[in-house]
Amino acid sequence: MKTEGRQNGRVLVIGGSMAGLFAAINLRNQGWQVDIYERAESELANRGAGIATHNELYQAVRSAGIELRDEMGVHSDGRVMFDREGSVIMRREMQQIMTSWGLIFRFLRAQVSDEHYHQNKSLVDLQQHEHHVTAIFNDGSRARGDWLIGADGTRSTTRQLLAPEIEAEYCGYLGWRGLIDENLIAPDVLAQLAHKMAFSMAPGGHWLGYLVAGANDALNPGSRYYNWG
User: Fold this and answer.
1) Helix locations, the chain, DSSP H
2) I need a surface site. Which of 74, 80, 124, 172 has the fewest CB within 10 A?
3) Distance from C-alpha of 63 to C-alpha of 22, rounded to nearest angstrom
4) Within 13 Å and on the Cβ side, how many CA atoms surround 212?
5) pTM of the predicted model, to two decimals?
6) Rounded CA gap, 98 and 77, in Å?
7) How many CA atoms does the CB half-sphere of 18 hold within 13 Å?
8) Radius of gyration of the chain (CA)
């Protein structure tokens, strides 16, 4: 629990996307001073990725002080599975909110002031001392903290500096994903897909899809996207 008037110390978070924001907000709520350093020069763009919520995400969002609400996504009441010819072979009830990277990011980002969210800060080096760490950025600036968290993604500079022997390896499969305007889906097909997470097997893999918010976070029918993978 946060103790009023008490600061545990300062934490530097490298990376200002979803993981960095979750870490920063939770640590701040525990009494830490936290600053985020993001390499992008401007506000992170919508990644166009759908997110199917689940209990672990609910817990993470609530721990950051956010309560999931209807405006955070498209309501889904179940799952549906099709065979290769398009016939329904299974239905299951399951209440979920189908949200998106952009929506969750903006709710989290609103909780961190610009004073503590630093853009155009690309980490180039670290200096570890007995009781603190110093982050050095591409513009020559430095930041000092008691702890440093690397939340800078798959191609993490933090990891390269601290554990250069770790390399990314191909896991044996890949995924394609994208978004299409829901109006491009035939009405009779959309009627089967709306408010459902849909699945089907395919040679060598499978596909899935569900509705998410459209442009400018629009949630009204006719203005949403269909997220497919």
Assistant:
1) 18-29, 55-63, 101-109, 157-162, 187-193
2) 172
3) 9
4) 26
5) 0.81
6) 10
7) 15
8) 21
Rounded Cα–Cα distance for residues 136 and 126 (Å): 6
Residues 51 and 72: their CA atoms lie apart, in Å, by 11
Instruction: Determine the straight-line distance between the first and last CA of the chain, rounded to whole angstroms.
Output: 40
| 120 secondary structure, DSSP code | S
Find the angle CA(123)-CA(132)-CA(13) to the nearest 5 degrees: 40
pLDDT of res. 17: 92
CA 126, distance to chain mean position in Å, is 26
Residues in Cβ contact with 134 at an 8 Å cutoff, skipping those fewer than 6 apart: 126, 127, 142, 143, 144
Vertex 214: Cα angle to 47 and 153 (nearest 5): 15
Report whether pLDDT(98) > 80.
yes
Angle at 153 between CA 134 and CA 209, to 5 degrees: 160
Q: With contact defined as beta carbons under 8 Å apart, do 183 and 194 qualify?
A: no
- Locate all alpha helices (DSSP H) within 169-212, ordered by sequence: 187-193
Query: How far is residue 227's CA from residue 229's CA, in Å, rounded to a whole number?
Result: 7
Inter-residue contact 196 to 98 (CB < 8 Å):
no
Q: pLDDT digits over 167-209, tens only?
A: 888 988 888 888 899 999 999 999 988 899 999 988 888 999 9
Between residues 120 and 57, which one has the greater pLDDT?
Answer: 120
Say which amino acid occupies 32: W
As a whole number of angstroms, the distance between CA 220 and CA 213 comes to 8
